[in-house]
Amino acid sequence: MKVTIIGANGQLGRDVCDAFTQNGDEIVGLTHADLELSSAESVDTALAAANPQMIVNTAAMHHVDQCQTDPVAALMVNAMGARNVAEWARRADIPVMYISTDYIFDGKKGLPYVETDAASPLNAYGISKLAGEHFTTATTGKHFVVRVSAIYGRQPCRAKGGLNFVELMLKLAQERTEVRVVDEEFVSPTPTVQIAEQVVALTHSKRYGVYHATTEGQCSWYEFAREIFDCTGAKVRLERARASEFPAKVPRPSYSVLENRALKAAQMNVYTHWREALHGYLAGRAQAQPAFSSAI
Question: Most Cβ neighbours (<10 Å): which of 12, 34, 48, 238?
Fold first, then answer.
């Protein structure tokens, strides 16, 4: 299958490209240099040249603070961009996948969110991504909406200064004797390699719909940091912190754990427990340490 990945040089996009290649698919990777999502003309031109049989849109304006400062820009990229891609896919009669986020929920449920739970985003980023979901599902029946959460991967994350949470914790462990991490916010940390594997499985299934796609289990950011330090033998004191110690400029959900109910119902869930996923990431990191060092 010929697949076009939009956002191919991103933290998730790079692993999605690799996963499709390993599966034997032909890929055409597009980056911001190749198209402007907010421009229907730019999207039409780039996708016509790529001539795909499937589109995976991993690109987004995902810096939460910047989205809050410039919500119009966030809507143009995350919502109208999704519409432009879905509209081209509809005309070409091919499937499209839109990567969404746990931030469409407000975190007040206190239990893992399933695909049918009502969305209630707290910030401009979540609003723009929810709008992108609606544009995608309303524009074409051949759609996948895949919600992910707390992702980390080998490719540097530009929105976070090149460091995902794991890399940030390991960096701080080298620089400090004590690290304080919030113990009141809960997630299911998910490596991009597992998301990429799930993306490939879904696209070849033609089981269209909305899916939650995260690792099993849940943890606070403190618990995640504890596991990172324990696995790597980091010599640093880790202390629990209250969320109030790190006041955020933008409201975020304190509980954004997702349950992969639709994937499990279709017997397509590829995810392991978050601890096992982290151990795999750290093992790969250790084997490719020079590459990680140069990337960061």
Answer: 12
